[in-house]
């Protein structure tokens, strides 16, 4: 163990991990990749002068969120050839350039040092983009350089594997690796381009081509768009990523975290813990052995002390030695569900409890665990659903016509009522109409594509260019025509409709505001199903106070307030957050949060001057 004594603080079967990650989606997978010893280095390309001039001419113009193909720009393949030399010949390469000349200048100050060991605050200065988190913008600028300017360039990051620099960690997930992606409708296409869904070190398009080739030229993952990817393809890619990168040992699937609490512990120091570990027969590598394979510049970084180290130092009461204080420890408890095959062939579930102790607890749960509710009468009736997954199951039950089931009394000829105006609601409209069923679509305010102001419904739909997202553009047109639009048979838009009651006889009541006298007009409709898709929030019930104390006041749609350069929660030392919890809802940006957390951990390890991988003596199987 490192930097403190834990005697009499945790259960005997607790397992120490340097990092515990709750959530096995893209955020957790990326962090595991970095903690497993894969370090990013800047390896830009010699950008032709003509491309630099193009960049300067478009830098101040507004562009769509997708990279625009241009015959005047060199292809990704031609640019990648400029960086095809072996890593050992870095010193002989052409000067490294990024389309952002100021970022290039900052990166050149420490060219031999991994980004993990650099000052990320300094590197991310002045960067702008579609994330409010600066390290997310930095990572995206290097992974997809110039993407928001219409450029299509290869990544300017290279990854080096340092197996001796692994950080002992575990990633906990309720389902298979991939987070919510495996549970999505397989035919849904991603909003982001397919190449933006990839994780470090494993090209998505190459994987996709190989998957299609292995399937005899047919797509093994459902429908495929030229630029976008299907949800099934992305889910399979993430599961293959775990195997391809040999990360399986770090992932515990089928786990449910029930409690994560800070625990008290006495003041101590690395010397005390090292002595205790030696008594227990633990062998650990010294800092010299650990850092020896790195470059001379990286070794100097490790040996140098931070300016504020003396302020953080305390005196250990047991040895009288000076040591750095630890902010807190976290105990993470829960259970893991495993399937067991009986002798007679029956499959049963067996639960195993686990308990981890860690100085770094990372929240990567996403924000889709708890669907938002309207809080109206009848919302808990069996024909009311709040997710696309539950909708799929309800449609199967409805069309099968099972008598006596939960949907008994529903008529397949009655329309399905959809409430909401976001992407999930649009997917529901498309899916239901594809099955030949009628749709009533209620959303709070009218949507007019020609008028971008004064409307809150379908905002994201309006931001998507029609040529890349034809299906969502079609739904937006259907919404704009209102209830009197006759060009879309079987669809009726209830613009401004507010669902106020759901009755057991499958009748619903909607209220419409009357602009003239501010009164409400009520309408009654009979429906087969009610689908309420008005967003969701994370399930942080395992944290103290349900995680409510972590919320930020600056942005109401961001559940957790963090230090933007370390992603550590402002109100909970040792607790970190990634992905949608901090506003990064797209895979393209959430990878930067993993870099920020891993960098902060490396800085803490440097301050502690102690070995990375330590485990509590335990008889537990959850090691």
What are the SSEs and their pairings?
Elements: E1 15-16, E2 19-22, H1 26-35, E3 38-42, H2 49-58, H3 76-80, H4 101-107, H5 120-123, H6 134-143, E4 157-161, E5 169-173, E6 189-193, H7 204-214, E7 228-230, H8 231-244, E8 251-253, E9 255-263, H9 270-279, H10 287-291, H11 296-303, H12 309-312, E10 313-315, E11 322-324, E12 329-341, E13 347-358, E14 360-363, E15 370-371, E16 384-385, H13 388-400, E17 416-419, H14 423-434, E18 439-443, H15 459-463, H16 470-481, E19 491-495, E20 497-502, E21 507-513, E22 520-526, E23 529-532, E24 536-537, E25 575-577, H17 587-608
Parallel strand pairs: 1-13, 2-5, 2-14, 5-8, 14-25, 16-23, 17-18, 17-23, 18-19
Antiparallel strand pairs: 3-4, 6-7, 9-12, 10-11, 12-13, 15-24, 20-21, 21-22
Helix pairs in contact: 1-17, 6-17, 14-16
Oligomer: single chain
Distance between the first and last residues' Cα: 14 Å
Question: How would a crystallographer describe the biggest sheet?
Answer: 5 strands, parallel
**CA gyration radius, whole angstroms:** 27 Å
Count every beta strand, where a strand is a DSSP E run of 2 or more residues.
25
Average of pLDDT = 75
Strand order of the largest sheet: 8-5-2-14-25
Helicity level: 25-40%
Report the total helices.
17
Contiguous low-pLDDT stretches (5 residues minimum) are 1-7, 50-95, 267-287, 316-325, 447-456, 610-623
Overall structural domain count? 3
- Provide the β-strand percentage band: 15-25%
Described by the principal axes of the CA atoms, the overall outline is globular
Given helix and strand content, the structural type is alpha/beta
